Amino acid sequence: MSLAPRAVLVHRTTEYEELLARHGTHGQAAFFLSARGRSVEEVRERHERVHRALAEVAGAVPLSWRQTRVERADLDRFLFGPEDVVVVVGQDGLVANAAKYLSGQPVIGIDADPGRNAGVLVRHRAAQARRLLPYAAEAGAAVDELTMVEAVTDDAQRLLALNEIYVGPPGHQTARYTLGFDGPKVPPKANPKPNPRATKERKHGQDPEQQESEPQASSGVLVGTGTGATGWLRSLWEQRSSALALPAPADARLAWFVREAWPSPTTGTSRVEGLLDAGQGLRLTVESDRLVAFGDGVESDALYLTWGQTVRLAAADARLRLVG
């Protein structure tokens, strides 16, 4: 006998709850904010809107279904099942936080505070949950399959993200690494220069672009999807007035940027941005004591890389199935 669908409501602790946890009481939180020219009432109103949305969604779950809730901080310990319908109640970023732990379950994004969110991923209102839940459980439900990015290390550690993966120093030090590519067609350098080694390799029938790599020193590398092109990736794209055509959320391509690359006698800056087509990967071989790789801004769930390790970043086979 197959299990009935389970509605998994994903939410996060509100700012008001965080204030109460820190200050103990509403009065103490109000005093703390008022002394700084802020009102606790605005924060409490947002808290109440979120909880009203959660209650409305919970009440819309069909009676024959099971349901449960999971807070963002517990996502890495929660076991999602194949019969789950995941309902994210909150902000766009909360959908990204949940996406890395899923394996094909349909996701419904509910905007708990309309007007404050961009609504790229939380596309629906709580009142629509009664219609969307049974629809999402149907085999033929229309979903947008959004590309995800993955990082895989040479010792088989794996990290998934919906928006972007950052690889760089955990603090404010400089990241040192060698950057290279693999795949059917390696992107050309941004500022190609004569390379005697490449000329020699051509004489021997080798493809130097497939083998050539560049030592770099920077504040890190960012590789992201079309969904992430509305966030951190876009800020880098706009900051450097890049001419790259950023991918769309369902595109198989990824965009990548090197942050603040530093030229020196031993490090270069000829490859600092580009696109990765399907099958192409970006490889970083660590030349620092310690680098970190994390996805979608969640530093608590990260891969730690040491000298000599290699990490490959590319489009993942898994996709987020977002109910449109």
Structure description:
By secondary structure, the chain is an alpha+beta fold. It contains eight helices and 16 strands. It has helices spanning about 15-25, 25-35, 40-60, 90-100, 130-135, 195-205, 210, 230-240, and strands at about 5-10, 65-70, 85-90, 105-110, 145-155, 160, 165-170, 175-180, 215-220, 220-225, 255-260, 275, 280-285, 290-295, 300-305, 310-324. Strands 1, 2, 3, 4, 5, 6, 8, 9, 13 and 16 form a ten-stranded mixed sheet that branches. Helix 1 crosses helix 2 (about 25-35). The radius of gyration is 23 Å and the shape is globular. Mean pLDDT is about 90; it is low at about 190-210.
Set down the secondary structure blueprint.
Elements: E1 6-11, H1 15-23, H2 26-34, H3 40-60, E2 66-71, E3 84-90, H4 92-99, E4 106-111, H5 129-136, E5 143-153, E6 158-161, E7 164-168, E8 175-182, H6 196-203, H7 208-211, E9 214-218, E10 221-224, H8 232-239, E11 254-258, E12 273-276, E13 281-286, E14 291-295, E15 302-305, E16 310-323
Parallel strand pairs: 1-2, 1-3, 3-4, 4-16
Antiparallel strand pairs: 5-6, 5-16, 7-10, 7-14, 8-9, 8-13, 10-11, 11-12, 13-16, 14-15
Feature tags:
324 residues; alpha+beta; 10-stranded mixed beta sheet
What is the alpha-carbon Rg in Å? 23 Å
What about the largest sheet? 10 strands, mixed
Classify the secondary structure makeup into a structural class.
alpha+beta
* Outline: globular
Distance between the termini: 30 Å
SS elements, strand count? 16
Number of helices: 8
Unreliable stretches covering 5 or more consecutive residues: 191-211
Order of helices and strands: EHHHEEHEHEEEEHHEEHEEEEEE
The amount of helix comes to 10-25%
Average pLDDT level: 90
Proportion of β residues?
25-35%
